């Protein structure tokens, strides 16, 4: 997910997307623990996407708190 896509999301969509991505990460980790997944770098990509989403959410909370 690109930063430009993240900026287009509303705050509610950000929170929902974080939940979806965390669920996806958990499923990927379990699948990888049971048997090796085809592309293990997907786990890293999902973790970074979650971090990007959380960063944008924190920026928005800080901006609304300072107003």
From TrEMBL:
NCBIfam families for the chain: L29
UniProt entry tagged with the keyword Calcium: no
Source species of the chain: Mucilaginibacter frigoritolerans
GO biological process, one term: translation
CDD domains: Ribosomal_L29_HIP
Name by which UniProt lists this protein: Large ribosomal subunit protein uL29
Signal peptide, first to last residue: none
Keywords: Ribonucleoprotein, Ribosomal protein
InterPro entries from the UniProt entry: Ribosomal_uL29, Ribosomal_uL29_sf
GO MF annotations, alphabetized: structural constituent of ribosome
Family: Belongs to the universal ribosomal protein uL29 family.
Record-level GO cellular component terms: ribonucleoprotein complex; ribosome
